[in-house]
Task: inverse folding
């Protein structure tokens, strides 16, 4: 018999662009947190399954106006930047880093400060439905390990990276690794520490090798981290072709694109997460797809710092793995639902163009827009595919990472008119209008990790 049974209507996008409504189903979750069965309302074993789960106190029944969605996957978060969310976004990227961000991140040498910030961040993200988070931490080994520990304690699926950055020309003296050897050795110690902390063959929290971005790393560091990724079979994350300044810097230094340089140093690997990638070429996209790497599309922060709109449709058409990133704090919203909305807007801006002085057929790039189911797929199953993890949809064998959206919460922005709205209509309303207040219960690995105190289930 299953450990848990969740009864209600579930909405998900198991393949890109295709909404599937699982109406009045019972989702059975086993002791490993995986979905073992999905039973329709007329299944002959349903009464037996319900009775057993109810007797064990493991039956959750969604009420009228409540719907089950897969948990959200956020592929790009700067955890230490949580205190500056919504600040200093009027600066250019290089000024924002040097004047605001690096001084803040340097404070994480204080472990008590780090724990206080990270506790609040993980709780806030879980309340927003982010069941899987990919984090940049800081250069500090102990504070980075503390973030991994907090994610594990609070039950969030997470990939955590200790940042590596050693270039004296781009990193301030008060905030950088002493040298490449120190950065590589501490990254190795971090990987080992997280693996010991998380344990088991299927850990909830995993380490990820994290060169901040090419401009902040010497050749020796990039080479050392690439070798380490191979030696320890560890995932990689970094920034890639984010802005005019950053992409020009890399071209001038190496005579090649970010993608080509990362590949040269062994950092473009299966499930490498490349944040932004706004200035990638068709050749870069082909290389990313060939390696099985992925792009974290961060539409909100791109509007502030990238100077361009990411070619999302081009990446999807080349079958590149793509998911969404909030990019806290260059992105000022912690909500991946907001990320869906920003992705939709960015794709329409790319398609329609921005200069009204140009004729309509010259103003934008036709065929660039994405649909609401595609945006939601990026936030869920697409993010899972990017990481190579069985998450983001309701299918057998996948982890039960999920949330309940309740239309009846006070102040809800979602208006539902059953006589006018199909469930497909309602799905669009949920993606475009639901907020944190509508998220009343969150599961990761089949365990409840966030719950509204006023919820009735």
Result:
């Amino acid at each position: 018999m299953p450990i848990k049974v969740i009864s209600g209507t579930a909405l998900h996008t198991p393949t890109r662009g295709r909404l599937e409504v699982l109406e009045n189903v019972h989702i059975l979750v086993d002791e490993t947190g995986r979905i073992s069965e999905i039973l329709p309302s007329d299944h002959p074993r349903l009464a037996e399954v319900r009775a057993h789960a109810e007797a064990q106190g493991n039956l959750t029944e969604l009420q009228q106006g409540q719907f089950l969605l897969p948990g959200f996957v956020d592929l790009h978060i700067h955890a230490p930047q949580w205190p500056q969310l919504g600040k200093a976004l009027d600066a250019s990227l290089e000024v924002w880093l040097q004047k605001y961000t690096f001084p803040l991140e340097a404070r994480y040498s204080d472990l008590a400060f780090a724990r206080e910030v990270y506790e609040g961040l993980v709780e806030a993200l879980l309340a927003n439905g982010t069941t899987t988070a990919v984090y940049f931490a800081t250069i500090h080994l102990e504070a980075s390990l503390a973030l991994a520990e907090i994610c594990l304690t609070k039950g969030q699926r997470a990939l955590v990276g200790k940042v590596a950055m050693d270039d004296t020309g781009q990193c301030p003296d008060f905030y950088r690794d002493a040298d490449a050897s120190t950065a590589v050795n501490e990254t190795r110690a971090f990987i080992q520490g997280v693996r010991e902390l998380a344990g088991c063959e299927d850990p909830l929290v995993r380490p990820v090798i994290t060169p901040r971005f090419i401009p902040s790393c010497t050749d020796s560091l990039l080479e050392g981290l690439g070798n380490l990724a191979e030696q320890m079979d560890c995932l990689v994350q970094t920034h890639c072709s984010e802005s005019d300044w950053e992409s020009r810097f890399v071209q001038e230094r190496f005579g090649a694109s970010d993608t080509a340089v990362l590949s040269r140093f062994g950092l473009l690997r299966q499930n490498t997460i490349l944040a932004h990638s706004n200035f990638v070429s068709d050749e870069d996209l082909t290389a990313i797809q060939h390696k099985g790497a992925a792009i974290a599309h961060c539409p909100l922060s791109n509007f502030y710092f990238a100077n361009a709109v990411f070619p999302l449709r081009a990446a999807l058409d080349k079958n590149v793995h793509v998911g969404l990133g909030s990019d806290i704090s260059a992105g000022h919203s912690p909500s991946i639902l907001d990320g869906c909305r920003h992705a939709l807007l960015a794709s329409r801006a790319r398609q329609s163009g921005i200069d009204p002085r140009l004729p309509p057929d010259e103003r934008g790039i036709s065929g660039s827009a994405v649909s609401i189911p595609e945006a939601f797929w990026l936030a869920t199953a697409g993010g899972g595919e990017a990481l190579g993890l069985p998450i983001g949809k309701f299918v057998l064998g996948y982890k039960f990472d999920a949330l309940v959206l309740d239309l009846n919460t006070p102040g809800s922005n979602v208006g539902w008119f059953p006589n006018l709205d199909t469930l497909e209509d309602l799905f669009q309303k949920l993606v475009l209008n639901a907020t944190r207040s509508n998220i009343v219960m969150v599961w990761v690995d089949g365990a409840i990790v966030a719950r509204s105190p006023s919820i009735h289930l």
